[in-house]
């Protein structure tokens, strides 16, 4: 705690932001002020210019304890929300000035380093274009959600590091016990037949099938029944162990980058690319392990689906920080072309989305819990919800606005196959 006694009998202390801390966005300026009389006002100034007055009167028993000789109140804390977007980037002098009713005054200054631009992407982290909206479409915790007008990707920023993702998966994903239960209840994913049909149509002689990001392996478990030789790659220790132990599958704890020398006729990436901090590297790894005439099947949330557009930050697949990216077909086709993959077929479907049940429960929960982002979405749609949801569920996939995009790609530049 910093403090600086000055003339008269007013003392002021500044606790936050910490000295030398780089700040951005909206930050809390906090401290305390005491006076022989009463503190009348605490002013907040930056570079000598007054920005406003702090709210005064927060409980600070610690300050009371530090000055036992003074007859004063414990409610001597102040707080001010400093909007760094009002300041330019770089060094500024932050000053808090307290005045007492007996014309006493004290102030305290501290240098602050504002770095708003650090929180704004210079260019699209996927395609590199400068056509990224500077202002976030919305905020989600410590992340901002930006959209690239070039490749149409939506992404959270800053892009979480692999460590941050790991912390999230370790804390928020299913327990081993629950994972085993789920697999026992549903050992075969419902869409195994649909993906088998795609393989049969676009690569009738395919035999070796690999699922990159296979989770507990229920999809390849289903595909194995059609006679394919199946292998899975899964980063999660828990899920890959469940796949091996419960279903007896050949699942490697790792990624396709670990598949040195392996060759597959089919690589599947189902709800995987949106989780990876480096989706283009994942696609490149897929291309490396695809045999001649091999195909890549991608299934992922569709950012241009009706529900995604309607719910925005409250969409069921806006999961922070697990889902780093939201692709549309435009984004996926750009990424595929970049990776020398040729589109053979694509469509959208309702897929895993639990449109009616899930989002309805979300709405009810949001209205109760007071999450403002979800409440706003809830208020927008509640009156129309049930009829609209039922209609959307039937119509959206036909219009290319289903919640999942499904695509088949062939290895090689366009025209080669
Ligand atoms: Zn882009």
Descriptors for this entry?
single chain; 417 residues; alpha+beta; Immunoglobulin-like; Rossmann fold; seven-stranded mixed beta sheet; five-stranded antiparallel beta sheet; 12 helices; 21 strands; 29% helix; elongated; binds zinc ion
Report on the structure:
- The chain is α+β, with helices and mostly antiparallel strands and 417 residues long.
- It has two domains: 114 residues, Immunoglobulin-like (Sandwich), CATH 2.60.40; 200 residues, Vaccinia Virus protein VP39 (Rossmann fold, 3-Layer(aba) Sandwich).
- It contains twelve helices and 21 strands.
- Strands 16-15-14-17-18-21-20 form a seven-stranded mixed beta sheet, sandwiched between helices. Strands 1-2-4-8-7 form a five-stranded antiparallel beta sheet, with no helix packed on it.
- The structure holds zinc ion.
- Zinc ion binds next to loops.
> Which regions have little confidence, pLDDT < 50, spanning 5+ residues?
none
- Could you give a short account of the major beta sheet? 7 strands, mixed
CATH class of the largest domain: Alpha Beta
The count of DSSP E runs of length 2 or more, i.e. the number of strands, is: 21
- Hetero compounds: zinc ion
Give the DSSP E fraction (strand runs of 2 or more residues). 25-35%
How would you sum up the global shape? elongated
Radius of gyration: 28 Å
Structural class estimated from helices and strands: alpha+beta
End-to-end Cα distance: 69 Å
- Overall structural domain count: 2
CATH superfamily of the largest domain: Vaccinia Virus protein VP39
Number of helices: 12
Mean pLDDT: 85
CATH topology of the largest domain: Rossmann fold
CATH A-level architecture of the largest domain: 3-Layer(aba) Sandwich
Give the strand line-up of the largest sheet.
16-15-14-17-18-21-20
């Amino acid at each position: 705690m910093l403090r600086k006694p000055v003339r008269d009998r007013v003392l002021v202390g500044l606790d936050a932001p910490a000295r030398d801390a780089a700040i951005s966005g909206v930050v809390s300026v906090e401290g305390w002020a005491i006076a022989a009389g009463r503190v009348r006002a605490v002013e907040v100034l930056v570079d000598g210019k007054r920005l406003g007055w702090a709210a005064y009167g927060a409980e600070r028993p610690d300050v009371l304890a530090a000055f036992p000789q003074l007859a004063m109140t414990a409610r001597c804390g102040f707080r001010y929300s400093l909007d760094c977007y009002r300041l330019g980037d770089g060094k500024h002098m932050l000053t808090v000035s307290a005045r007492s009713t007996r014309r006493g005054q004290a102030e305290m200054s501290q240098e602050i380093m504002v770095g708003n631009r650090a929180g704004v992407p210079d260019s699209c982290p996927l395609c590199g274009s400068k056509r990224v909206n500077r202002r976030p479409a919305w905020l989600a915790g410590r992340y901002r959600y930006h959209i690239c007008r070039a490749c149409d990707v939506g992404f959270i920023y800053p892009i979480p590091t692999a460590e941050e993702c790991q912390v999230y998966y370790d804390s928020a994903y299913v327990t081993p016990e629950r994972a085993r239960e789920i697999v026992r209840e549903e050992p075969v994913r419902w869409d195994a037949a649909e993906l088998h049909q795609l393989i049969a149509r676009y690569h009738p002689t395919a035999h070796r099938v690999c699922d990159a990001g296979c989770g507990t392996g229920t999809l390849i478990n289903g595909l194995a029944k059609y006679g394919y030789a199946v292998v899975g790659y899964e980063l999660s220790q828990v899920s890959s162990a469940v796949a091996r132990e419960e279903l007896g599958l050949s699942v490697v704890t790792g990624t396709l980058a670990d598949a040195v020398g392996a060759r597959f006729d089919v690589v599947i990436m189902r709800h995987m690319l949106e989780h990876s901090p480096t989706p283009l590297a994942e696609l490149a790894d897929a291309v490396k392990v695809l045999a001649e005439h091999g195909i890549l099947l991608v299934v992922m949330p569709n950012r241009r689906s009706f529900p995604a557009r309607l719910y925005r930050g409250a969409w069921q697949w806006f999961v922070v920080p697990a889902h780093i990216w939201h692709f549309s077909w435009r984004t996926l086709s750009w990424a595929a072309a970049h990776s020398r993959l040729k589109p053979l077929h694509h469509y959208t479907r309702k897929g895993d989305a639990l449109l009616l049940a899930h989002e309805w429960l979300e709405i009810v929960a949001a209205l109760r819990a007071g999450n403002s982002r979800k409440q706003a979405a809830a208020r927008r749609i509640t009156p129309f919800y049930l009829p609209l949801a039922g209609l959307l569920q039937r119509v959206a996939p036909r219009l290319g606005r289903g919640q999942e995009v499904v695509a088949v790609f062939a290895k090689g530049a366009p025209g080669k196959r």
